[in-house]
Queue: 2 jobs
Job 1
Amino acid sequence: EHTGDKPRRVLLKLSGEAFGGGAVGIDTHVVRRIAGEIVTAVDQGVQVAIVTGGGNFFRGAELQQAGIDRSRGDYMGMLGTVMNCLALQDFLEQEGKATRVQTAITMGQVAEPYIPLKAIRHLEKGRVVIFGAGAGMPYFSTDTVSIQRSLEIHCDEVLMGKNGVDGVYTADPRKHADAKRFASLSYERALVDNLAVMDASAMAMARDNDQRIRVFGLEGEGNVTRALLGEQIGTLVSS
Ligand code: UDP
């Protein structure tokens, strides 16, 4: 929980969809915009760590449907997340921010290995830390990794940036016009009612360790900055 004297530290999850702008590959306009919004918040003293998804390149489960071994497909998915890290890193560096990419699969030429204490030091120095390659393990998701990294490096909140939806609703707002957005809800309700915020293993890990999550929409101009600064947009999931 964030208290007044400690700087705010957050874990921002950006899905692959955010990087691809809905297509395969990188939509540089979107990534540049998000990078700019991150810089605005970092300049105001927020410590920002990021976990990137990779669905804009590969998802292991989809590759499996196409006949590729599940674990190998998952590794392909994890490698995709690293390309997103590098794209975001580039735009942040262009804006004059110091960054470090840390990956769960070692690849010394492009990133540091994941070393939690080092990540914390980077954050304390005002560097943006971008975590890639998920957990380095097949059968995991970057949502679950977001909760895990946030717990390990002691973030106040996980900020789940979403495309096409700006919080958690009573039903899918794209299908039900009368769906209502929750301002807040419990882990239990999200799990039991199967409200599609993130995968169940991520939600269960958050519940078991009391990790606050804010689900918000990435699309509105300034939303990323608002979420990073702690504005109460979207939906808060907590105990
Ligand atoms: N993945 C994995 N282990 C992890 C994280 C990711 O195997 O710890 C693989 C998995 O195949 C997944 C893909 O990487 O489908 C891309 O990640 P994810 O689907 O979580 O990205 P997003 O949906 O956020 O774009």
Note: Strands lie at 9-14, 47-52, 99-103, 112-113, 128-132, 157-162, 184-186, 213-217, 235-238.
Job 2
Amino acid sequence: ARTYIVTGSASGIGATTAALLRDRGERVIGIDLHGADVEADLSTPEGRVDAAAAATELAGGTIDAIIACAGISAPIPATISVNYFGVVELLQALLPALKKSDAPRAAVVSSMASLQTNSPEMVEAALAGDETTAREIAQKLADQGPRAGYLVYPSSKRALSRWVRRQSISADWAGNGIPLNAVAPGTVLTPMTADLLSTPEGAKMADDAVPMPLNYHQSPESIAYLLLWLTSVENTHLAGQVIYDDGGADATLRGDDI
Ligand code: NAI
């Protein structure tokens, strides 16, 4: 069996991914705030360090794959901390154990929302590793009201997708033979979207932002199966891709613009 680290394992896409892996006989070490093998808060630097140390110890020093699903969508500074720094700092902290695998792999969950209007300043601050500034920008946007506050989530995911593009070809990842990729879902039926989709107005907002001509809203399984393949031994050359697994939302919105 391969040893997988899955963040956000207590709910939604992470929980479904962990369950499918266990069904296949793989070993899963889940990380989440509560209800996981490793309970840690990925919104803080200390939480990330503690999570990486505990997961590495539970794994016995070698990790075969990391699947980072933990994320939040609220218009608050914690969103850039969890969605960007909680992924990249954790991946970097787990890299020594991942390098020991015969077939190391990593995949993260970005979002279709990464293509939406965002704050370039926040994206740049995140990519520069400046969490304090990124959080200050998020707070300023939130203070300006819901419209500006909404930019926080797409900014966190744009930064994450761009980090994956850059790092995937670096000495750390490609240089160590580790495929690193992102999946960008459309609207997935999980606790994250349940409130929004519970009213006709909310559903219309979601569908205007993320039109899904192929099969409409998607199950967490639709994302989990792709994450499983990206982190399997079968994936030897797919690297640095942001795969829009989104019912055709990207093709609808961007069309020829690629
Ligand atoms: P969810 O809310 O069902 O699960 C997210 C999990 O992350 C929860 O178990 C939560 O406790 C954990 N988490 C949140 N903050 C954390 C922290 N500080 N430390 C540790 N764990 C923390 O959400 P869902 O839908 O499964 O989302 C998974 C990923 O997919 C997220 O990154 C989300 O942004 C992304 N996504 C979701 C979409 C959707 O429509 N549901 C669409 C596109 C992307």
Note: The mean pLDDT is 97.
